Amino acid sequence: MTTGGALSLVLQQARACRVCEQHLPEGPRPILVASETARIVIIGHAPGRRVHESGVPWDDPSGVRLREWLGLGEEQFYDPAVVAIVPMGFCYPGTGSSGDLPPRPECAPLWHERVLQHLPEERLTVIIGAHAMARYVESPARTLTAEVARWADQLPSRIVMPHPSPRNNRWLAKNRWFETDVVPAIRRRVEQVIAG
Q1: What are 57-79's pLDDT values in tens digits?
Q2: How wide is the angle at C-alpha 179 spanned by C-alphas 130 and 72, nearest 5°?
Q3: pTM of the model
Q4: Which CATH superfamily is domain 4-195 in?
């Protein structure tokens, strides 16, 4: 972990990034949050259209469900001293035929290590969805469902979760064990991390 000044500079540079500008239908608006004290790191997909417009990460129904799963109110969730939000793509990638497009592939390789190196080494990393899993889980052949089911082997340092989007209601209905078994364990771990 390094000083907050170094992280502030990286965040300033990341928020000014225009590397993918020609590929972004709504233009660049990098959205990420981090501080050198954040011991919970959320790595998800990329901002959606609503988040792109508001500039507030997880400011949508997916965010409501994610906060419920984590057991965090808005005040804690949006406190950068507690929670860092470092998506796979910092900008809204646009919409495809079945939802938002994948995060731009340039973003995570360019920025993640530069941001994450400034955060506490002992932290809980919340990996959301297949794109984040592909980068941060060493077994890329494993399905997201199989990786989520390994939750007991992952905690206390990380957890892989499905995306909390309402589009995943069918997955949640088919895999009820996630909300009955995994969510309570996640909440307990988040409480421990916040309590220090």
Answers
A1: 999 999 999 999 999 999 999 99
A2: 85
A3: 0.94
A4: Uracil-DNA glycosylase-like domain (3.40.470.10)
